[in-house]
Automatic annotation (TrEMBL), chains A, B:
<keyword id="KW-0804">Transcription</keyword>
<dbReference type="InterPro" id="IPR000843">
    <property type="entry name" value="HTH_LacI"/>
</dbReference>
<dbReference type="InterPro" id="IPR046335">
    <property type="entry name" value="LacI/GalR-like_sensor"/>
</dbReference>
<dbReference type="GO" id="GO:0000976">
    <property type="term" value="F:transcription cis-regulatory region binding"/>
</dbReference>
<dbReference type="GO" id="GO:0003700">
    <property type="term" value="F:DNA-binding transcription factor activity"/>
</dbReference>
<keyword id="KW-0238">DNA-binding</keyword>
<keyword id="KW-0805">Transcription regulation</keyword>
<dbReference type="InterPro" id="IPR028082">
    <property type="entry name" value="Peripla_BP_I"/>
</dbReference>
<feature type="domain" description="HTH lacI-type">
    <location>
        <begin position="6"/>
        <end position="61"/>
    </location>
</feature>
<protein>
    <submittedName>
        <fullName>LacI family transcriptional regulator</fullName>
    </submittedName>
</protein>
<dbReference type="InterPro" id="IPR010982">
    <property type="entry name" value="Lambda_DNA-bd_dom_sf"/>
</dbReference>
<dbReference type="Pfam" id="PF13377">
    <property type="entry name" value="Peripla_BP_3"/>
</dbReference>
<dbReference type="Pfam" id="PF00356">
    <property type="entry name" value="LacI"/>
</dbReference>
Length: 343, 343
DNA sequence: CTGAAAGCGCTTACAG
DNA sequence: CTGAAAGCGCTTACAG
């Protein structure tokens, strides 16, 4: 069985290439091709496994039916979940997705954007490092369809989908304060990312609303690469001083799980010695010890929104308003905060 | 800034399209194009963001520099980790990866294979549903480069990378028996998948080696879709009868985490009432309560091997032997089995 | 319905 | 080095 081309099936069937192409693209009826001929073509194609070359098709039609997805890390549970939703929705609409991880490196991300572009993706979805303003502006100038999620560029108008990082963190911090915790630490990443900045602000706002000033020393900003050891240092620092904290907010799931590891190692009891909460969660957060109260991101909604906005963009030639969505998070209360503390 | 094409940069620079193409593809030297001209072309291209159309390039050269990855579910932690490794390695070699989840549906998987093929991927990586023998044979007949991982077709000779499911399960079951457990249950998926079958055999072999016959009633095979409720039923069944089990082996990570959830709900103490172990793990298995002894799969090695074999296949025109690798698992002992039990 | 033809944007011998 | 040309495998007006 040799590889079949359009011309082969045309020849075999004694019809024109035009007819075959038209029929296989569902344009048989509108071109008044007889039912019999259509059936003949369709059956032959199916029987002999005729596979049209998408490269040629894409080149000819000027679109590839492919979407590019650029995320920090496909192995991270949050991104892999969103990727799953995006892929499922995209497939429903006939798109395949090309993905690539930037590993938080702006240079890699920039190259990825260009690489996706030269592969003629029809649209781009990016959870950006937020350090490629130039590329983002290039995309805008070219009117290339793209939507950002998770991380966006506050100073550049674009389509994006994010969650309410500020309010989510404020709420979970208040939850802690309402339970009688007075000295709340915040372990987070070094600044640079918008969601992280928003979470810090939410934390501070909650303290302020409770008439507590957020001591600088309660906020620990650590580097992503060496977070394993730095979380440990941060916790030792927060818990060992004379004025030890009685609660810690972790700004993301892997900091929280490492935090839990460290707390166990240090023999600190959660929530008795210190209560903890996490922004974003691991699916196992309900079976860790103790189960961790978390701010849950609406993964499905994020994926749906992103695809919806992007496909709208791709479909329409008229320039539309930028669409931005800020989705609500959900506070999942578990036992890592204990019950009310009277001191 | 309009979109630039090859002919545009040729015109602007007063050189031929040929020269531009040659230089940009790194064939300047071998075609004796002067250093100055080369620099001129390269600089202009970079400055004006010339992005060659990969569709045209691929069509012309007969390869797309794209690899297709078909897995059951990108959101599953095991597959997302392997996908990350594969993507990283592929990128190093200049390949981008197109991915798609089959969600365990053979029909979807079959369509995906054809879809990837018509997108002219240069090779395919599949963790198969094992129900598309026809497509696999088609790929073989076409001499299309592909390698299977995790799940393969025992009756069809292909390249594949798997782990030692049999021995891994045997070892972890023996670990349980060596600790004095006598009645070991096995909660697994309904048959159909080779790794699952191997794990069951490993479990039985361990029992046999300890002169225990594996009672049929100790093995619970459940459906993937409704595993949440079925794990519960299985555990109730295994623990409530007069001869309750004193240990349970879970054949995969999500069964184990659901098992832990259920055991907590039923107020059964792990490992006192029942010890548990898991084949494959969640990254949080060291902080759940109790930490779960697991058979760890060598995710990096799997990814590396798959890419290595595939790229070899793509690179060589001579037909080579099928390459198969069976990688070792690692037993990670945690406290979910307790210490030696004397009864 | 057909058939010849142009076009998508590249790459790559080939003659000079 | 150039330049004209063929070719990759499709799609799509167009004249008949």
């Amino acid at each position: 069985m040799k590889k079949l081309y359009l011309k082969d099936v045309a020849r075999e069937l004694n019809v024109s290439k035009t007819a075959v192409s038209l029929v296989l693209n569902g344009k048989g009826d509108e071109n008044k091709i007889s039912y019999d001929t259509q059936q003949k073509i369709i059956n032959f194609a199916k029987k002999h496994n005729y596979i049209p070359n998408q490269l040629a098709r894409g080149l000819s039609r000027g679109k590839s039916e492919t979407i590019g997805l650029i995320i920090p890390n496909i192995s991270d549970t949050f991104y892999s979940k969103v990727a799953g939703v995006i892929e499922r929705k995209a497939k429903e609409k006939g798109y395949t997705v090309l993905f690539s991880s930037s590993y938080e490196d702006p240079k890699t991300e920039g190259e990825l954007i260009l690489s996706m572009l030269n592969r003629q993706v029809d649209g781009l979805i990016i959870a950006s490092t937020q350090q490629n303003k130039k590329e983002i502006e290039f995309l805008k100038k070219e009117k290339f369809p793209f939507v950002l999620f998770d991380r966006y560029y506050p100073e550049n108008e674009t389509d994006y989908v994010i969650v309410d990082n500020f309010y989510g963190t404020k709420k979970v911090t208040e939850h802690l304060l309402n339970l009688g915790r007075k000295k709340v630490g915040f372990i987070t990443l070094k600044p640079g990312l918008e969601p992280i900045a928003q979470r810090l602000m939410g934390y501070k706002e909650a303290l302020k609303a409770h008439n507590l000033t957020s001591k600088e020393t309660y906020v620990k900003e650590i580097g992503r690469e060496e977070y394993f050891s730095e979380v440990e240092k941060a916790i030792i620092d927060l818990t060992a001083r004379e004025q030890a904290v009685d609660a810690i907010v972790f700004s993301t799931h892997y900091l929280a799980s490492q935090g839990l590891r460290v707390l166990k190692k240090l023999n600190l009891k959660v929530p008795d010695d210190v209560a903890i909460v996490s922004f974003d969660e691991l699916s196992a957060f309900d079976i860790v010890e103790p189960p961790v109260t978390s701010v849950v991101q609406p993964v499905n909604e994020i994926g749906y929104s992103v695809i919806e906005i992007l496909l709208n963009k791709i479909g329409s030639t008229v320039k539309t308003e930028f669409q931005t969505r800020v989705l609500k998070t959900k506070l999942e209360i578990r036992s890592s905060c204990g019950s009310f503390l009277s001191t």
